[in-house]
Amino acid sequence: MEPQPQSAVSHPRIDGIERFNTHLPAAPILVVIPTYNERENIEGILQAMNLPDVKCDAIVVDDGSPDGTAEAVRQASAASPRRVLLMRRKGKFGLGVAYLDAHRWILENAPEYQYIVQMDADFSHDPRMIPLLVREAEAYGAAVGSRYVTGGAAPDWDRRRLLLSSAANFYLRSVLRLFFPSYPVRDNTSGFMVWRRDVLQAVLRHPIFGDGYSFLTSLKLVAYRVGYPPREVPIILRDRRLGVSKLNKHIMFEAFKMPWRLGWTFRRLPSAPGTAATVEDDAAAHDNSIEMWDRYYASEDETGVFAKFVHWGRETYFGDLFARRVIALGGPASSYLELGVGTAQSLARLQRRTGARCVGIEKTPRAYELGKAYATNCEMVLGDGMAMPFPDASFDVVYSLGLLEHFEPEEQARLLHEQARVAKKAVLVEVPAAMSQMPVIFWFNRNMLGKRGVWADEELFSSRRFKKKYPGLPFEYFYDWASGCMTCWFVLKPEDIQKYVPRG
Fold first, then answer.
1. Do strands 487-492 and 423-432 pair parallel, antiparallel, or not at all (unpaired)?
2. Strand partners, 57
3. pLDDT higher for 226 or 445?
């Protein structure tokens, strides 16, 4: 055993660091195990970490356990084929502070570890899942073992406990999505996580609130906001084998309040450049692929009463409403082009009202087929709006409805320039005005209609932000409440786009 020099102890809560088996080479993975009265479990969990296909060291963060957990760590380390560290703290400060103390010490004093694992000592987290979580963290920056994605479960729990946990996570995610509509994490209270070192450094540059469940939620939300939404990996969560749970009413009440505090605090924290969060359960980065949108439009095949009602409303009311807006804003025109035409209700209504040539371009095969079925008097083109198969100045008015927000800033610029190229008179851009009500609409769209989509740019949705994004660009705009939610319409001239919008 080698006592850690006091100069390496970075916080007065830490009484000391003990290192064992330092003659062995360091593994690239370090598992952080917080403990308080876990003597019955700690030896077994350290032995279970001796995995055949991955090498990992362990640091036990003990809060002065009166049952002798620290001494059990010293004894168990003698038989371990890996390095073991023991961080002794001066009292019981809680789970969240235990992880923060350990993470900060590792980042300051242990550069040999590239992946940091968070894991409980009570065998509720299976060490055999560490290799899979590490692989996901290597690719995506952060990974979390999740009960609430396909393949995840908690089979040892009774119905009451499962209902409480499911309701709590539904509540946490719903509140956070009021502030951040594309927040993807379903299992916010999971403590089984793996961090890539650079991502953990980025997360800890920001304040992490709370203890227990609220701390774990805070970590995930900050990771999402700095551009690394945790990748959820299905796990089977087991009940603790021995010992007593540390859950109490204070932790539960704090978890109830925390999402509101997190949402308000981090609402202005910018995401990392070039990254975006999806609402797909199995995606941890921007997915604007044809396959994703095909899944999105698959819900149009639903035959339930509610789905039929929504489709009827969109076809009879919203489609006609948007068609009238296009006519009013674009002025007299003999030809229209809609980008990202989707199911084409608006395009069909536009053609009926004007009798003009109406063309829709759609890159998703499923939506393209639906559009052809709905808009029989319109021309439908299967193609990419970034490189349209039309000559310059082919259409009087080119417009898009709820399209631009699905692209990142560089892609938005390319899309605007391509619209300007084929437009003669005007380019119309309609986007949702996020602010307060759009997260609710977004949640409704996902949870009630079963749709999956992606917002790549949540900073687009207002005239002020649009001006900031494209300084000098002249445009007319107005806000519209008639469609049941607030939307922004931007009226642009093709020559102004070409002059003021930087090419992506």
1. antiparallel
2. 30
3. 226
